[in-house]
Amino acid sequence: MNHSLILNYIKQSQMRRLSRLEKGSICLHRLNIYILPSRQGLFFALIITLMLIGSINYHNSLGFMFTFLLGSLAVIDILHTYRNIWRLRFSPAHSPPVFCGQTMTVPLKLENYGKPTREELCFQFADDSEQQIFDIEESQFQTIQLQRQTTKRGLQPLGRIIVSTTYPMGLFRAWAVLNFDHKILVYPRPAESDRLPAESNSNHKTTGSLGQGSDDFVGLRNYHPGDSMRHIFWKAYAKNHTLLTKQFGGEQQQQLWLDWQLLSGLDVESRLSQLTRWVIEAHHSDVSYGLRLPDTVISPSTGDSHQHQCLRALARFGLND
Amino acid sequence: MIKYLFQSRLTRIPADIGLLLFSTILVCLPHLLRLPIWTVILCVSVIGWRVLYELKQVPLPGKYLRLSILLGSLAGLFISYSTLIGRHAGSAMLVIMLCLKLLELNKKRDALVIIYISFFIIITGFLFDQSLYTGAYMVLVVWALITTMITYNHYATKGTSVQATIARHFKLAFILMAQAAPLMLLLFFLFPRLPNPLWGLPADAHGGQTGLSDTLEPGRISKLSDNPEVAFRVLFKGSPPAQNKLYWRGPVFTNYDGVRWQTDKNSLSLTRLDLDNQVVSNPVNYQLTLEPHNQRWLFALDIPTTVPERAILTNELQLLNSKPIRSVYRYSVSSALDYQYDMTSVLNIESALSLPTNTAPKTRQFVNKLRSKFKNDGVLVSAVLDHFRQQEFYYSRNPPRLYADHTDEFLFDTRKGYCEQYASAFAVMMRMARIPARIVTGYHGGEINPFSKNLIVRQSDAHSWVEIWLSKRGWLRIDPTSVIPDHRVENTTDLLQRQSREQQAKFLLEKGWASNSIRQLRFALDSIHSHWNSWIVGYDHQRQTNFFSLLGFSNFSMLHVGLLMAASISLAFFIIGLLLFRQRKTIDQPVLKAYEKFCKKLVRCGFEKKPYETATDFAQRVALKRQDLKQDVLHINSLYNQLRYASAPSRELLLNFKTLVQKFRPTQR
Description:
The complex is a heterodimer.
Chain A: H1 2-19, E1 26-27, E2 34-37, H2 39-58, H3 61-85, E3 88-92, E4 98-99, E5 103-112, E6 118-125, E7 132-136, E8 141-149, E9 154-157, E10 161-165, E11 172-178, E12 183-187, H4 198-203, E13 217-222, H5 234-240, E14 244-248, E15 255-259, H6 268-284, E16 288-292, E17 297-301, H7 304-316
Parallel strand pairs in A: 4-12, 15-16
Antiparallel strand pairs in A: 1-3, 2-11, 3-5, 5-8, 6-7, 6-10, 9-12, 10-11, 13-14, 16-17
Helix pairs in contact in A: 2-3, 6-7
Chain B: E1 4-6, H1 14-32, H2 37-56, H3 63-81, H4 87-101, H5 108-125, H6 132-152, H7 162-190, E2 215-216, E3 230-237, E4 247-256, E5 261-263, H8 272-276, E6 279-290, E7 297-298, E8 300-301, E9 303-304, E10 311-313, E11 319-321, E12 329-340, H9 361-373, H10 377-390, E13 394-395, H11 406-414, E14 416-417, H12 419-432, E15 437-444, E16 447-448, E17 455-458, E18 462-470, E19 474-478, H13 492-497, H14 501-509, H15 513-537, H16 541-551, H17 558-580, H18 588-603, H19 615-625, H20 630-645, H21 651-663
Parallel strand pairs in B: 13-14
Antiparallel strand pairs in B: 2-5, 3-6, 3-17, 4-5, 4-8, 4-15, 6-12, 7-11, 9-12, 10-11, 15-18, 16-17, 18-19
Helix pairs in contact in B: 1-2, 1-5, 1-6, 2-4, 3-4, 4-5, 5-6, 6-7, 7-17, 11-12, 18-21, 19-20, 20-21
């Protein structure tokens, strides 16, 4: 009775610890580092046991000496393995969003307060079998780039990262679970079709002199963050280091509405994929485009931040996080 | 700088395989010297194959070829040893398995299997040889193996140079072993030793131990003659007896069938009382440390007046241990060098007189002639010895082989022999003259080690002599070779044995400083060997009990030993842990601590530092809202930045920073 109660308690407290999200950074210390023999270590123990039995039976002194040397090495290995991940502080940094299905690079900031170099640190996302192995060289602050497969759109939790090491002899594995309160943004997977909706072009075009396209230069204005790099007037920057943005078309510019309603035959995810593709295409062809979703409307504009705003709206559509 | 590799990439760089091959060769080397020649050829060619594969991409054998090589070599082993059990066949099998495994080395797991087999090969090697040199060599082998283990556990070798990585691993393995050494020694001395094996051992478990034989065939060539291995070491209480009195008695041979002398298997055990009735005087006390020779006999001078524990004294005055000596064995004994031993009551005189009737007809003729001339036994003995002295008899270690009746051939034909031939011929002649005689083998002499004051007796000091029984005088030692004049002695060792210590010293001095310093070095080494043998190789149940009583635990149980072992090992583990987990003293920790305090003070005024905010951003945010704190906050911030990011911040700056934080007392609004 008592026994199962205690076991239950341990299980629950472990679950609590595992599911608790850490804001900011996590430092590895004796409360969150676990260490157990690896499979190789268990095999090593078996071999030592056989050797010990042999030495006892044959009264072989050097046999004893050798067996005890190997045993002591294993014991010392515990300390070295533990020390290899002890007193490391991790914190995730902002990772640039990617489209679903792509590999995201997650920068993990690392502060070293213990052993100067760390060998063979293995990082693994709990839901991914791929192990990423790093040697950390002598420096107190550094950033490592973890690769994360993305499978779902939206503002996703980063997920548990298991950091482990078997260095130096591989007989023991020390590990810790990093569960950050950190979200990563994943855009929807873009659809294959790359044709922009033609009807939307005529339907939502405002009246103006049709003879002037978007290539029509109107004037210059001061640079605002988010303006497309392609519209920067680099000559002026070269002359006197002021950033100016070239303006085209003005009121007369074509306006493209990417509308949820245009894709009425498809299911939600396909619609989002298609819209994502359109946003990418529209951004590349430098037309002023707007996005119309059932719950959001983003008025037409251009530029990187506009694209991000649209993709972000698409990513988070229908998800309340 | 950081580099990474994914686990799927398991192919190893050639340098790693080179290291593994190097360790493997080191492991196999001592065994190859003992294995049958075909095994050596097989192993060398398999290792060579692997090397060729690495260098020239010569294809490796397929699965079926490997399997057939394995089965073939198992059959070969069975033919060579007629068994697959036991240390010879077992170690040969392990070595072959190790070499064959080199041909299918694809994954990390294969390398580990090789390393683990290597561990077994090392430990089987200790069944053959436990010398200091073997121990030292194996330390090197283990070093290489641990380095290989670390290298194979380490994927991220990309980027830095391979040599540097492997050198780093060698260094790390050395550190690991140095840290493991104290734990190992504690375990070695404290782990409880059992007095008996857990179960029966294979028949060949204790071979490879040299020593005297339990048969004596004068026709065959002695195997021991030039072996410099130590037979035993003696430490005398008081000054050692004269060199010519050091006859270390071993097995006694009474039964003779015309070709071969054998020990009497039915010899009786003497009691204390029997000994007390004999005339003995001035016993010498000494402690003898015997190397294992896998026989029951113990060595002692002339008549032992005390009998070591678990041993008996036979009616032939031979000390027999209850079990064969299989590990270094130390015992104390005292002996009488002047004695009259005349025990007819327990002596079977007939067996000391028996001879096959048709042995050595020419000798019989010769003896009969002498007997008719000298009726007195004593005079007859000196007449025989005079014969050896006056005729052209040589004392040689390489005598011609004897084919026909060896007594006749030796006495009348070759006249050249070593101690056993003289002893045998002399004993046969005595028996023909109806004087009871027997052969005693053992060691004669020995040299004093000036470092340890031990007397070292080597296998090359092996000797045999004769004991005859004369009425009223009892058993008397006669060494027939001692009458051969020096100029007819061929071997210097034998010559030296016959001389007193002063003569020996003079003789050696003439040999020049070079050989003398080599001798000194040999003595120094020997005293190390002696300690190695008594403390490491010979550390058994008995020695452990002595060791514990030395520590003050006279009455201990297994539980006590276990507790002592656990406690001392935990302590050692704790100390090594403390050394490893010492915190680096950096300036950062006090800086961070003080900064934390500063932030806490600001929290009380409603400013919380956001995780994404840099220190400067935060300070500016506070400064903007609270003009009254602006100066302090910005000052503290600039000091903080200097302390954290300047290349070498001074201690004064830290003190300054700490006092500023201390004095910083923001008022709440």
